[in-house]
Amino acid sequence: MYFNGRLQIRKKEDLPVAGFAGWAELPFLLRAKILAKEIPARFMALFDKKRGVLKKGIFFRQRAINILKGSALITANFKIRNFYSGHAKTIHGDFKNVRREFMKNIIDSDYVLCIKGDGNFSTRFYETLSLGRIPLFIDTECVLPLEDTINYKDFCVFVDFRNLSKIDKILADFHKNISDEQFVMMQKKARDAFENYLRIDKFTKYLIGKLKKIAEDHVRDKRI
To answer: Does the pLDDT at position 108 exceed 60?
Structure first.
């Protein structure tokens, strides 16, 4: 278990530290191949901006990272890789070292850039919460678990994918307008949400309880 399972609290500094460690580079030929496949979706996005959500996640990552790196409003803590480290067949180098760098990048950041991958979800989002860090979540119309129970706005910064060009300003304004105490509380709430609801054992238990109640209500309604 990383950091002995203890929450590492960060103190609020003047500038927010935005972190990301992972795949955000594409070789020219692979990039061209992906872009060719996305031509229909990108064309439709010219008339309906919502269609822009269909782009591959790495393009959102690259744009967000370039904006944040070039901004004087935030401190960038990025480790950009040209490989996907979430699978044994694609990872380069020693798995333990790559994983350690990934976790340390989260711990050493105030806010962690979380953007969808090929699917419309982010595993990094849950890893960020597990370490008590605040997700800088690019909302690509994702459905988050237990949204009727968890108020994600208590410990996340949401940026609509259509407002990605303003990501540095949105983050800087958010950081400026919260108190030192609120900043610490968001870290605690992020960890609590993971520990109490989103960790696999807790989520499974909660899900079973919900399904059981649905079944019981269904049986009761049939009797009526």
So the answer is: yes
